[in-house]
Amino acid sequence: MSSDTLAKTSAAPDIPEQADSLRIVPQRRLGQWAAAVAVLVLLGLAVTSVVRNQAFQWGVVGDYFTSGSVLRGLWLTLWLTAVVMVLGFVLGALLAAARLSANPVLRSVGWGYVWLFRSIPILVQLLLWFNIGALYPQLLGVKTVDLFTPIAVAIIGLTLHEAAYAAEVVRGGILSVDRGQIEAAQALGLSRWRRWWRIVLPQAMRSIVPPAGNMLIGTLKGTSIVSVIAVQDLLFSVQLVYHRTYQVIPLLMVATIWYTVVTSVLSVGQYYVEKHYARGSERTR
Q: pTM for the full model?
C-alpha cells in the first residue's frame, strides 16, 4: 500500500467529524421582512383611518344593517342569484352539448349564441329587454309591459348572459376528461347515460367547479346592476334609504359589508366543493 493511499485512509474518518462541526446558517431575507413590515404598517394605517373616520357614521351603519328594507333587498339578491345560476347552467349545458355535437348546424348555433351574448354588455342587454315593448307592443295577445316586469327582465337578461359563460365552462370541463376513459367505459358495455353520469361528469366537475364558483360570486355581485331597472335588490334598497336621509356613505357601507359577508360564505363553500371533487387527484393534499 502506498503512502498516498495510507494518507487518504487515515484522513477519511475525520470527514464526518468536520461535517458535524459545521453550523448551518439560515439565509437572511432582510428584503422580505422589510416589505412585510411596510405592508403591515400601511394596512394598520388604513384600518385606523377607516375606524376613526367619523364620516363613515358607523352608528348609522349598525342601525340600518339589519333593517327590514335592507334584509328584504338582501333576500331578493340571493333569490335572484340562485334562479339565474340554475337557469343559466341548464341553458349553458344545452349550449355546450350543441357546441360538442357532430351536427354542424347545432355547433354553429351554439357558437353564435356564445359569441353574441358575450359581446353585448349586460347593462345594454337589460336595457334592451326593459324597452322591448317599443319593438313588440304585444306578445301572445298580452301587453309586453305586463309580461316583462322588472323582475322578469332581470331574470331573462342575467340568465341569457350567464348561459353564454356557463356553456364554455361546461364544454371545457367535458373536454378535460381523457378520451381513453370514455373508450374504456364503452369497452365495458356501459350505456351512454351511465358513461356520462358515472365516468365523464365526476371527472369534468374538477374543471367545472372552480370557474362555476367564481361565476356564482360574480353573479351575486352582478345582480346589483338590476337596480337601474328599479328591481329592489340590496343596492336599490339602500339607495331608497339614502335618497331620503342623504346618508350616502353609511348606507353604501351597509351594502358593502353584506356583499362581503355573503361572498365570503360562498368562497368557503366553493373550497369544500372543490376539495370534494378533487379527491384522488394529484392536487389533493
A: 0.79
SS (H, E, C) the chain: CCHHHHHHHHHCCHHHHHHHHCCCCCCCCHHHHHHHHHHHHHHHHHHHHHHHCHHHCHHHHHHHHCCHHHHHHHHHHHHHHHHHHHHHHHHHHHHHHHHCCCCHHHHHHHHHHHHHHHHCCHHHHHHHHHCHHHCCCEECCEEHHHHCCHHHHHHHHHHHHHHHHHHHHHHHHHHCCCHHHHHHHHHCCCCHHHHHHHHHHHHHHHHHHHHHHHHHHHHHHHHHHHHHHCCCCHHHHHHHHHHHHCCHHHHHHHHHHHHHHHHHHHHHHHHHHHHHHCCCCCCCC
What pLDDT was estimated at residue 19? Answer: 54
Task: Give 79-109 pLDDT, tens digit per residue.
Answer: 999 999 999 999 999 999 899 888 999 999 9
Residue 239 has a pLDDT of: 93
CA angle, 185 as apex, 194 and 277 as ends, to 5°? 65
pLDDT of 5-27, one tens digit each? 544 555 455 555 555 566 666 66
- Maximum Cα interatomic distance, the chain, rounded to a whole number of Å: 113
Note whether 237 and 199 are within 8 A (CB).
no
